[in-house]
Amino acid sequence: MTSTYTITARNPATGSENRIHADDVARRYGFRGGLVPGVIVYGYVATGLAGPDWVARGRAEVSFRKPCYEGDLLEIDLGPDGGIEVRSRGEVCVTGRSSVGADNRGPAVASQDPAPAPGRRPLASESSLAKGTSLGRIPLPAGEEALTGYLKKIGAGDWTLDALHPGMLLEGANWVLAANVVLPPWIHVESSIAHRRAVRVGEAVEVHAAVAEEWGHKGHRFVALDVAWRSADDVVAVGRHVAIWQLAGSA
């Protein structure tokens, strides 16, 4: 049986460094207004997926096909076969699949160094994001305060699991990219994540990443990261995170 629910989209990133979430900048690129971050939309989806088994052994793949905006009523369908579909304003904006106990043998990358200080980040470029580049690791906020703040941010106040919300992990994939290079306005377009176990609240977790691919298409420049979430020597999740790091016309 398909599980269907609705939620009103929020854009908590209007003041972030990524100005594609600000109305004035997004409109210059032809959007209606500031884009709701893909990781926030994923958080809405993951709230519906999350149960003890999925948080510990689940996998999800999502593609962000059209933008969502502040105030949009999102219709989220989670099918019995694992299908994921999110609709906004009558259009499909997200598609994907989920499963439990799926293959999670993705690259468990390990960054040798921490991310640079903010003022020492290089500009994003084909060189700084070249295939094989190891990105500096970052800590993932995982304490009770971070969980409470995240749940408030996405409007998931009824969270009852004794584990981090899975959306917090995927948010870390955005952060590790932005912590390593200075980006122009950019858009998260696709992700996959496979959980190897649940992450306890308060556990020390770091996000590690390496550039898997960097390419151009229709004037845009894309980057794909292999990402691993690590607690000491224990890999708690692995994934792939894809973004348009340079939009057509912004070079």
3D structure, described in words:
The protein has a single domain (3-246), classed as Hotdog Thioesterase (Thiol Ester Dehydrase, Chain A). Helix 2 (38-49) packs antiparallel against helix 5. By secondary structure, it is an alpha+beta fold. Strands 1-3-4-5-2-7-10-9-8-6 form a ten-stranded antiparallel sheet. It has helices spanning 23-28, 38-49, 52-57, 144-154, 166-178, and strands spanning 3-8, 58-64, 73-78, 83-88, 91-100, 134-140, 187-195, 205-217, 220-231, 234-246. A hairpin with a 2-residue loop joins strand 4 (83-88) and strand 5 (91-100).
Label this structure with key terms.
alpha+beta, Thiol Ester Dehydrase, Chain A, 10 strands
Characterize this entry briefly.
With 251 residues, the chain is α+β, with helices and mostly antiparallel strands.
Number of strands: 10
Instruction: Please count the helical segments.
Output: 5
User: What is the total number of structural domains?
Assistant: 1
Shape: globular
Strand arrangement in the largest pleated sheet: 1-3-4-5-2-7-10-9-8-6
Strand residue content: 35-45%
Query: Helicity, in percent?
Result: 10-25%
CATH class identity: Alpha Beta
